[in-house]
Amino acid sequence: MRDNEFLRQKREREFQARLLAAVEKPKRRTFWELLNSGFVLWLLSVVLLSVGGGYISNHQQCMKDADTIIAQRFPLQEEIIGRQAVFLTAVQNTKHFQEAPAHPDELSPSTRGSSYSFYSNASYLEVMDHFSNWKRRIDRDEFPDPRFNSEGLRQLEGILFSRRYALIFPTGKESEDELNNLLLRRRLAAQVMREDSDFHLTLDNAHTYRTSCSPYNTVMEAMGYEMKIVVAYVPSSIHLDSFISALTYEKDRIEANLQWLRQLGANF
Fold this sequence. Notes:
Number of strands: 3
Low-confidence stretches: 162-166
Radius of gyration: 36 Å
Strand order of the largest sheet: 1-3-2
Shape: elongated
Strand content: under 5%
Number of helices: 9
């Protein structure tokens, strides 16, 4: 009898142990087990594909924009030089100051000298603004000759881009000689404007352009920021002496005409 009671109690304890094991809380999964689970792997793959696809799309757009900036280089410069050439001719052919245009946009029509149909409806100032925006997107390496790097050109460009030398207007009380002086100053101002464009065209031609759509630039462009997505550098294979000779000649002409303008009374 006692043996039967012992066996019954043993079976009850075994049953209780199995029952407790069945309702015991499952063990918590480790981080790596969770990470390797099917759902998490699927979720990560969706996120990576979305982010990767978005980055590739934005990178392609960045490259396209950079290629467009590089392709605009010659058309923009030729458009500006063409407008300036017509303006310079108009000023030089004018015999009286009152008839001389003060700015390329005062030509009739104002788009005279336009070389490209896609700029034909834009004013000279609009083309210049477009050119300024174009330059802001380019990260330009310093020119090897310090006379023509950013520091060496700062003073000259400060005078040229202020355009104060071109704002030559009469008061209405000038004598005939004073009006002739103003006409000469306006002709010189137009000449300096054209020489400055030739100078920067030579400087730009010494550089090679390439796209610069790094991951940082690509992300910032996608966020709406305008980054420097083009790099301009002077290749080691270039024949630098010819460019330096041309730049020196053009810079000397600009400075000589600016000095002449000062002697004639131009205030800048």
